[in-house]
Amino acid sequence: MDCIFCKIANGEIPSKKVYEDDRCLAFYDLNPQAPIHVLFIPKKHLCCVNEITEENAGEVAHIFTVIPKVAKELGLENGYRIINNCGADAGQTVMHLHFHLLGGKTMGEKII
Ligand code: 5GP
Ligand code: ZN
Hints:
It contains two helices and five strands; from the N terminus they run H-E-E-E-H-E-E. A five-stranded antiparallel beta sheet has the order 1-2-3-5-4, with helices on one face. It is α+β, with helices and mostly antiparallel strands. The chain binds guanosine-5'-monophosphate and zinc ion.
């Protein structure tokens, strides 16, 4: 499958990794929108939040146990923002489920 993030997950495309285990990977975004901008992906290909089911939700739950550990390691004690874009209207550009971790500064106005 021609998926950039699957290729990053299997090492075909290099990335600056922050965390990896058998189920997920975290790596720095190529085009950072904050001093710290890390992407979290499941190694299993899911297009987006729309493909989360009872059967695969454990992959997402696992990512959300890893996020606070990585955030702490990156020194984000003052907080951080997690963003997911799902589909065209949200501006999703890579169709492999991912969560943006943004931090390292006081964030601007809230989106919601
Ligand atoms: P989206 O807009 O789909 O929520 O976010 C996709 C993100 O992936 C963007 O922030 C973009 O900068 C990042 N990105 C796209 N291609 C690559 C790549 O090859 N390597 C890395 N590290 N980030 C990428
Ligand atoms: Zn993929």
